[in-house]
Amino acid sequence: MNQGKITNLLLWTALAIFLFGSGYKLGEYRTSQKTRQRPFYNILNAPSEKTQQKDKNIDFNLFWDTWNKVEQKYIDKEKLDPQKMFYGALKGLVASLEDPYTFFLTPEENKQSKDDLEGKFEGIGAQLGLKNNRIVIIAPLKSSPAEKAGVRAGDYVVKVNGQSTKNWSLPQAVSKIRGKKGTKVKLTLLRGNKEFDVEITRDQIIVDSVELSFEKRKDCKRDCDQVAYIKLNQFGENTNEEWDQVADKVEESWNNKSVKGAVVDVRDNPGGFLESSVYVASEFLPFDRLIVKQETTDAGTREYHVARRGKLTDIPLVVLINKGSASASEIFAGALRDHKRTSLVGEKTFGKGSVQEAIDLKGGAGLHVTIAKWILPQGAWINGKGIEPDMKVENKLPEGNTLTREEDAQLEKAVAEVLE
What we know:
By secondary structure, the protein is α+β, with helices and mostly antiparallel strands. It has two domains: about 120-205, PDZ domain (Pdz3 Domain, Roll); about 210-420, 2-enoyl-CoA Hydratase, Chain A, domain 1 (Alpha-Beta Complex). It has ten helices and 19 strands. Strand 13 (about 290-295) and strand 14 form a beta hairpin. Mean pLDDT is about 85; it is low at about 1-40.
């Protein structure tokens, strides 16, 4: 074999080895990329062609391409939590509707939402406020861990677990003091001139959605006429049952003439169940009176009427409202106003005129989705507009203070209206 043939043979052999090696490495790279796409989890229940709607034409390759690129390129691999990424994608999907009342909830968030409607949370059981821009105990709840630990109304919270509360906002203080049942929190309290520590074991706290007390005018010293003051914190899971107990007491007080009327306070009541607002409003209105209409695009209109005999249909009544009164609170206040059953005192309400359905999804997740809008008896849709009070009264507080009875001009006006 001459030199030229040997050279050509070597060249072809080298080329063959190069091509084989390149092909092998390319295949190895592709294989590694495929196995790197989802290295520590499997994708379950991906839609088959039979279940996909042919008219959508949405190419999910972009979704998986983005997912894979994030996994491959993102610098902090410890933050690549596929479950969290999956929930985040679902949140983004629902948020694309640009409806603030339609949203996806993770299992933890869904549980918290249900607990809130049931009036449950975990913490020490103390109502916090601000006084002179300092965190202060407004009142420990009855039989709460805070009360049992000796916490008193008026105590300033100086530190939480050794961290100073100076310049804290109220939500910040609440988030630091709340915690899971069985865990402990150390508060440094200031009472008078004495500063001391108290360690409290958190527990599950049940907050009543309906509270009853009896109020009189501030300037009355003795032999004072009283009104039943009913604070509705929300229209939740237990509201109807709690309401029945309170309504019985108010009816008894009205019948024996120990009260001159009632004030129902839905200030800062964010709403809750529509059916619960209908139930409570029915206490004050004649049988079969229209309370609210629910309109949908596919199921037409549904009307909610008074379907029971109310105990308080003739008691003088004033309803307190403000910008925190929303949704079911506005149904309650608006229906009574439309039927000229009450005067509204305070400030304009929030203005939420839509209805959401709470749906439980797999794994404990949830979905709140807007399904309808609601219309008041006289035809008003107050979404984005709110309900104006008949008597506008603003509470003016020194900056950094929490409202007290002495400073509550709205409540004072409501009590005066009932008594006049």
